[in-house]
Specification:
This protein is an alpha+beta fold. The longest helix is centred in the first third of the chain and has 15 residues. It is elongated and about 60 Å long. The two termini are 28 Å apart.
Length: 262
C-alpha cells in the first residue's frame, strides 16, 4: 500500500500537471459517476491527506481518491488514450493527461463536505502546518489506547495519518521498540512521533522509502523485507511475522536483539 510520502509525491505531480488549467477531459470510470461531466472546469488544487488524495475542482466539487494497495497515477502528454479494465480516472487538459489505475476508492462530493471522507483521520505527518500542536495531538491519540501493541497503533490512520507497513517496521527498529510492545511501555512516545514525521518528510520528494541513508539498491532499509538476513547493526537474523491491525493482517519485521520482546 502506498504510504503517506508516496501519496504526497503523487499529489504534487497531479498539481503540477492539472492545477490552474481547465479540464478538456474528465472520465470517471466508476459506474455511479459515469454521467458526471466536469469538462470545462478549472482544477483549483490537489492535496494529500494521509493516504488520501483530494482533487478540488471549480464549482465546489472534490474528487476523493484512495490508492489502497495498488493504485497509482501516471502523467503524460495531452491526448493519451488510456485503455484497460484497471483505469478508473482520466483527467486532462490541453497540455497533460493524468491516468489513475487500480484506484481503491473514487468519490465525487462537495468540497464543503470533504470531512465526510477524511474527517476521521488523525494528524497528517506531512501536513504543511506540522509542528508541536499536531505532534502533541498525535501523541495524545496514541496514548488513549495504552494496552494496544504499538505496531498496530501506528498503522491506525485515526491516530496519526501516513504510516504504512514499511515505515512501521523501520520506525520501531530505529527506536529499539518491539512491535508488540504496549503503547504505555514505549519510551519517549513524542520522540517516536517526531521520527515518523522526519522519515516521511525526508522521503516525500523522491522514489522509494530510504531509512538507512544509503541509496544503494538493497541497502535502503534496516529490517523491512529482510527476514532471515543479518541485522545491519548486530548481525542477528531479522524476523518476520503477521501482526493484526484494523487494516487486516499485516506483516512486520524486527530484530530480536535490537528490539527485545516485552
Amino acid at each position: 500500500m502506498p504510504e503517506g510520502d508516496v501519496v504526497w509525491w503523487t499529489a504534487r505531480r497531479l498539481r503540477e500537471a492539472l492545477a490552474g488549467r481547465r479540464l478538456t477531459r474528465a472520465e470517471l470510470r466508476v459506474p455511479r459517476y459515469a454521467a458526471v461531466d466536469l469538462r470545462g472546469r478549472e482544477v483549483l488544487g490537489v492535496e494529500s491527506r494521509g493516504k488520501h488524495l483530494l482533487i478540488r475542482i471549480e464549482g465546489g466539487v472534490t474528487i476523493h481518491v484512495h490508492l489502497l494497495m495498488e493504485g497509482e497515477f501516471r502523467v503524460g502528454p495531452a491526448g493519451a488514450a488510456p485503455r484497460g479494465h484497471r483505469v478508473r480516472l482520466v483527467l486532462g487538459n490541453t497540455e497533460r493527461t493524468a491516468v489513475g489505475t487500480s484506484l481503491g476508492m473514487v468519490d465525487v462530493l462537495k468540497t464543503a463536505e470533504e470531512d465526510r471522507v477524511v474527517g476521521h483521520l488523525g494528524p497528517d505527518l506531512l501536513d504543511p502546518a506540522w509542528g508541536p500542536e499536531l505532534a502533541a495531538e498525535a501523541v495524545a491519540r496514541l496514548s488513549a489506547g495504552p494496552d494496544r501493541a504499538v505496531g498496530e497503533a501506528v498503522l491506525d490512520q485515526r491516530l496519526l495519518a501516513g504510516i504504512g507497513n514499511v515505515y512501521k517496521s523501520e520506525l520501531l527498529f530505529l527506536r529499539g521498540v518491539h512491535p508488540r510492545t504496549p503503547v504505555r511501555d514505549v519510551p519517549d512516545l513524542p520522540g517516536l512521533v517526531d521520527l515518523a514525521h522526519r522519515l516521511l518528510d525526508a522521503n516525500k520528494a523522491r522514489h522509494g522509502h530510504v531509512t538507512t541513508g544509503d541509496l544503494r539498491r538493497g541497502r535502503t532499509h534496516w529490517v523491512y523485507g529482510r527476514a532471515g538476513q543479518p541485522c545491519r547493526r548486530c548481525g542477528t537474523p531479522v524476523r518476520r511475522a503477521d501482526q493484526s491491525s484494523d487494516a487486516g493482517d499485516r506483516v512486520t519485521f524486527w530484530c530480536p536483539r535490537c528490539q527485545p520482546e516485552p
